[in-house]
């Protein structure tokens, strides 16, 4: 079969592209100038006719056999008469025209999906007329949610009737809908609720679904250890506290150590009038809500790599008094045999480092001592940690 010219399969592939883009389904719902769809065919040139007359005849027959003329639906052919001095006058197909959206659907064998789309879109628009435009813009999202739509519409009705309810997601009493249903469909629910709810009931700056629509969010927990036995709380030293409660507590500790690694936090040495916060990673910025930290001496201990310095810079954005701990060139080279490789280094600029820290960051970014050099904080000897603390 010649691939130089447009075959019936090529016509179907062109339709498939328009189906995948949503254009064909959109044409079912909204005014659209897609149909009749006229597709120019790749066809033989006039100087090929004599040498390839038999092949061209077979090509024309294949097109005609699978056209509306041959099978009763689908595409129609526009043909142009071509005169040749040896083969005489012949009709050569120049375009395939798909007259209607239904012809396209039959060619693609997508009639069932199209009928399902129309059924769902009609139901959605009947409940929420503003969503008709959304359904036309995102028809494949409509189909992808399939049998979920009864539940989705129930959720929409509940949120419309109970704006910014202040409940946990688990507390919502929606017949036929459980917590997991909403959890797994936050993406599409966010899109739809943003359209149907009054603007004043939506916090458009919020990052989470719960905050955006006035639900009570799962408390953000901060884990810490009190490092001075004299400051234990009724014998308790290892505490996990919601950040909302942490804001209202002002411990007697004068120094606060912040470290990313959980094990380092768990085995951090006892130190007078001190506590250690650990395990937050890049989420460390939740501590900006804790005002009493601004009154403490802060030490940040991160990995000796580019991301460690990025997190140090992040902490200093809201706790500018922060000092780094064991994040210097001397510490790096003392444990050279324990270096590993940072797979995806941070390549940006940081503005809150000391001159010494900035020089070390640049050396790491420039691969001065090897590609992606890093020293993970848990590889630093416990003795070095004790020496650092004893010098404070």
UniProtKB/TrEMBL annotation:
<dbReference type="InterPro" id="IPR024534">
    <property type="entry name" value="JetD_C"/>
</dbReference>
<protein>
    <recommendedName>
        <fullName>Wadjet protein JetD C-terminal domain-containing protein</fullName>
    </recommendedName>
</protein>
<dbReference type="InterPro" id="IPR014544">
    <property type="entry name" value="UCP028408"/>
</dbReference>
<feature type="domain" description="DUF3322">
    <location>
        <begin position="8"/>
        <end position="193"/>
    </location>
</feature>
<dbReference type="Pfam" id="PF09983">
    <property type="entry name" value="JetD_C"/>
</dbReference>
<dbReference type="Pfam" id="PF11795">
    <property type="entry name" value="DUF3322"/>
</dbReference>
<feature type="domain" description="Wadjet protein JetD C-terminal">
    <location>
        <begin position="214"/>
        <end position="387"/>
    </location>
</feature>
<dbReference type="InterPro" id="IPR024537">
    <property type="entry name" value="DUF3322"/>
</dbReference>
């Amino acid at each position: 079969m010649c691939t130089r010219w447009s075959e019936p399969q090529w016509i179907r592939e062109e339709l498939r592209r328009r189906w995948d883009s949503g254009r064909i389904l959109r044409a079912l719902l909204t005014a659209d100038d897609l149909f009749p769809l006229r597709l120019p065919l790749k066809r033989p040139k006039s100087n090929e006719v004599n040498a390839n007359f038999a092949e061209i005849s077979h090509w024309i027959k294949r097109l005609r056999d699978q056209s509306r003329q041959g099978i009763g639906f689908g595409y129609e052919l526009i043909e142009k008469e071509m005169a040749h001095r040896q083969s005489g006058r012949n009709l050569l197909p120049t375009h395939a025209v798909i007259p209607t959206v239904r012809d396209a659907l039959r060619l693609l064998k997508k009639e069932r999906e199209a009928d399902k789309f129309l059924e769902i879109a009609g139901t959605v628009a009947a409940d929420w007329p503003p969503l008709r435009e959304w359904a036309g813009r995102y028809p494949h999202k409509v189909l992808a949610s399939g049998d979920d739509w009864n539940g989705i519409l129930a959720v929409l009705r509940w949120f419309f009737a109970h704006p910014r309810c202040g409940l946990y997601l688990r507390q919502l009493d929606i017949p036929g809908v459980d917590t997991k249903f909403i959890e797994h469909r936050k993406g599409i629910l966010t899109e739809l609720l943003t359209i149907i709810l009054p603007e004043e009931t939506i916090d458009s700056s919020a990052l989470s679904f719960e905050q955006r629509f006035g639900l009570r969010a799962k408390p953000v927990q901060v884990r810490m250890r009190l490092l001075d036995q004299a400051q234990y709380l009724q014998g308790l030293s290892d505490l996990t506290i919601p950040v909302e409660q942490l804001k209202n507590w002002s411990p007697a500790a004068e120094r606060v150590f912040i470290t990313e690694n959980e094990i380092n936090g768990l085995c951090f040495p006892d130190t007078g009038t001190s506590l250690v916060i650990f395990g937050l990673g890049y989420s460390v910025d939740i501590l900006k809500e804790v005002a009493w930290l601004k009154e403490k001496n802060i030490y940040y201990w991160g990995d000796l790599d580019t991301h460690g310095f990025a997190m140090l810079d992040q902490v200093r954005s809201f706790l500018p008094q922060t000092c780094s701990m064991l994040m210097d060139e001397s510490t790096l080279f003392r444990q050279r045999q324990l270096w590993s490789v940072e797979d995806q280094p941070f390549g940006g600029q940081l503005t809150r480092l000391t001159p010494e820290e900035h020089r070390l960051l640049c050396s790491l970014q420039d691969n001065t001592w090897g590609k992606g050099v890093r020293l993970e904080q848990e590889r630093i000897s416990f003795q070095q940690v004790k020496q650092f603390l004893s010098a404070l």
